[in-house]
Amino acid sequence: MRRESGLKALLWAISMGVCALLVWIVADLVSRGTGPISLEFLMAAPRDAGRAGGIGSLLVSTFWIVAVATGVALPIGFFSAVLLAEDTHSRMSRAVRSCLDMLNAVPSIVFGLFGNALFCVALGMGYSILSGGLTLSCMILPILIRTMEQSLRAVPKEQRFAASALGLSDVTTLFRVLLPPASSGMAVGLILGVGRALSETAALIFTAGYVTRFPDNLLDSGRSLSVHIFDLAMNVPGADERAYASALVLVVILFVINSCVRLAARHFQARLAT
Amino acid sequence: MISAENVSVAFDGKIVVEAVSLELHCCRITAIVGPSGCGKSSFLSALNRLTDLMPGSSIGGRIHVDGVDILSGKEPPVGLRQRVGMIFQRPNPFPLSIERNIQLALREHGERNRAKLAEATEKSLRRVGLWDEVKDRLGESAMRLSGGQQQRLCIARALALEPQALLFDEPTSALDPLSARVIEDLIQELGHQLAIAIVTHDLSQAKRLADDLTVICYRDGRGVMVACGPATDVFRDPGDSDAALYLGER
Amino acid sequence: MRTSLAIAPRTRQDRALGVVLRSSALLAASLIFLVLLFVVFEARGALATPGFGAFFTDPSWHPVDDGTGSEYGVLPMLAATLATTFGALLIATPLGIGAGVFNALVAPAPFALLHRSLVEILAGIPSVVYGLWGLVVLVPWIGGVSHSGQGLLAASIVLSLMLLPTITLSTEAALLAVPKEQLQAAAALGLGPIARARLVAVPAARRGIVAGLVLATGRAVGETMAVLMVAGNVVAWPRGLRDPLRTLTGNIALEMGYATESHRSALFVVGLVLMLCVALLVILAGLFGSGKNHSVSASGSAGR
Asked: What is the ipTM of this complex?
């Protein structure tokens, strides 16, 4: 009995510690980061290597990089996930799944090398938003596919039997029967992908580049917010405060995206249930 | 309407049930009974080729529906499944509205006219006695219905396609006794309108419902048909020691 | 389960769907080969001269020839990668598993929910932000007055923060997947929540927990930014807790920007080494996963 309560106390202590750590990091981020934030900071391009000015251009670049990444990865990911979920045991599905497992294990910096070699050099896109976005799309594909596959598979087998017993076609079964209950899970997959793309730094340094001005088109180099944080912290003395402010913005964006899509997913399910 | 000759079902080459021959006719209820695990559900699924969905399955023998050999591969299973509906052990409505559940398959098979869809919805809900209970909330999610109502909705969903035969796979075993009774009465009623096969492990249910009875028993690691015929005859004289033992248990 | 989807094309739409599904999956699957192909292709120069062996026999890393010849030794950096990974796991494993067990089995429901969302927030913070926090808060604190503070300890701590949510969430998921019946049976025998966790749930969920740890190890080996920002980045064998070092990933990130020709090619070889490490981990994970009746035997031993 004493052992029981001792262990229990230990577990409480551990989890409180983890909570405290989180609170510490977030509080630190907020207390150091709120200073420079203003409307001008959010709208303007950086000046003096980031010691002055804002992060407006970086937000634009980041948006386009993530848009390219998810725009390319989403359709491929969705259809691959459907194949894997519906055709579980075929040799093809198993082969595809192990390839994706390996792809998922590739470190992001290696994706950076790959993206640099393929998109920047071989395909001649140079350091550009397009190169960066395409590199990230390869990187987020495994997680996108895995979560989407899981949410499709979570739909009870009986529903498929029912659909089939009614003679529904594959297209109808997929879009009318399987997709509605799986959609919230799919949304979660999408957020995870967007989150990963937004957070990624290493794969972007040598693909999307360092340029801080507003991009004119997708073939312009554009620095993402995460690369900016890294650069300010490591290479620009005296810009810690701005690095913190940029980090705060990034974390808030991630948090908002997470909450929004989760709310939307819940709303969608609620609508289904009534 | 449906005739099965010497049908066997195998998974990954291993036969689970074999030597089943029976005929389903309009306006008769055929009960298929036997101990659990003897392959009666697998056999039932073979009748509208739902076994296609189960990995590694293969069907032997011959099955004719309306004189057409359904195992030849000439007829696509879609049309077959419209004519031969199936109801499962656990109610499995789609997570859509009540109305949508019934209309989904109709729309799929080409019916676009709203008035006709509404008419078909009402008709099939009335046939299962659900109309008065749900007519004011057709837009609500089917998942909100009780288990028994869900099962009736599933039957209505199948009826909306105007099938000639319905296959029931232990349709009451997941329900409470009261709901089970409602479903049973409904099956009895439908038995006057179309051909019905029902797999059940409940002998008293079989006795109450069946016009014809097929007994499948477990022999040498696989299910084998051991008795078949008009229900009263088979119950009186199974003509097989295993069947007699099984039927005599109650 | 095999369904009719994409198996037996019927209508024209269905046939089209089948083609789309298959070609998407093939494209997705081919990416890993594309990555390998390009990395090897770009590394071919350095693989020819000085050759792959030189990367493991040269004493140090001086890829740019400044008159005294180039050296391509990656072993110190490999050791640094392994040291930071090990250090991070040492910190994060007990904390992560503890928090996961707490969340799944011990915590009162509302608190578990709160705790879980906190951990999810922690999981959602980008590595570069952890790196920033490490650089600005942690490093001066570790360094005190005499050291810079950048080094093995700082890198391990920052890295462990990133692994913590992974381990916690996978532990929790594995525990929640343990059949309720087993836990009810244990409760019926008069076991308290901790005993239930220790004797029944954790043994039954062992495989999922280990899989989470392997996953975390892979992330630690592959992580770049967080480590890069606090490790000090001097190529050196790991010796003391506060001595700076440079990991394989950090090396690529630092030098890729200005590397040309043979230097650039050498960095792709470093990438290849990194992929080999990760591949080894994947194979290891596969070995853990292939014990077929493991979960049965796990629940069997739990019943004893």
From this structure: 0.87
Residue environment code for C131-153, b if the CB has 16+ CB neighbours within 10 A, otherwise e: bbbbbbebbeebbeeebebbbbb
**Reported confidence tier of residue A268, pLDDT bands at 50, 70, 90:** low
Cβ–Cβ of C4/B54 closer than 8 Å?
no
> What residues contact residue A16 under an 8 Å CB cut-off, 6+ apart?
none
Residues of C in contact with B78 (CB under 8 A): 10
Contact criterion met (CB below 8 Å) for B105 and B161: yes
Alpha carbon of A157: minimum distance to chain B alpha carbons (Å): 9
Question: What CA–CA distance (Å, rounded) separates B225 from B124?
Answer: 35
The pLDDT of B223-245, averaged and rounded, is: 90
Residue C103 belongs to a domain with what CATH number? 1.10.3720.10
- Alpha-carbon distance C4 to nearest alpha carbon in chain B (angstroms): 6
pLDDT band at C120 (very low <50, low <70, confident <90, very high): confident
In a domain, C211, yes or no: yes
pLDDT over 90 at A156, yes or no: no
Cross-chain residue pair B143–A273, CB shorter than 8 Å: yes
Q: What single-letter DSSP state applies at residue A90? A: S
- Cβ of B53 within 8 Å of Cβ of A164? The answer is yes
Is residue C40 included in any domain, yes or no? no
pLDDT digits (tens, 9 = 90+) for B99-109: 988 988 888 77
Of A159, A160, A274, Cβ closest to residue B140: A274
Q: Which candidate in C2, C7, C12 is best for mutational testing of the B interface (most B CBs within 10 A)?
A: C2
Please tell me the total count of domains within chain C: 1
- Chain B segment 77-106 residues within 8 A of A by beta carbon are 77-82, 85-86, 88, 90, 92-96, 104-105
Distance in angstroms (rounded) separating the CA atoms of residues B182 and B129: 9
Residue of C nearest to A23 (CA): C118
**DSSP state letters, B64-108:** EETTEETTSS-S-HHHHHHHEEEE-SS----SSBHHHHHHHHHHH
Is pLDDT at A274 greater than 70 in this prediction?
no
Average pLDDT of chain A to the nearest whole number: 87
- Interchain contact, A29 vs C133, CB within 8 Å: yes
What is the chain B residue with the closest CA to A87? Answer: B55
B10: phi then psi, degrees, rounded to nearest 5: -130, 145
The average pLDDT across C137-154 equals 84
Give the model's pLDDT for residue A265.
65
> Does any domain span residue C232?
yes
Which pLDDT score is estimated for C5?
46
Contact B158 A274 (CB under 8 A): no
Give C302's pLDDT tier (boundaries 50, 70, 90). very low
- Domain hosting residue C76, numbered range: 71-303
Residue C147 inside a domain? The answer is yes
Task: Answer whether B94 sits within 8 Å of A159, measured CB to CB.
Answer: yes
Q: In Å, how far is B58's CA from the nearest CA of chain C?
A: 13
Give B245 to chain A, closest Cα distance, Å.
34
Average pLDDT for B186-209: 93
* Phi/psi of residue B64, nearest 5 degrees: -115, 135
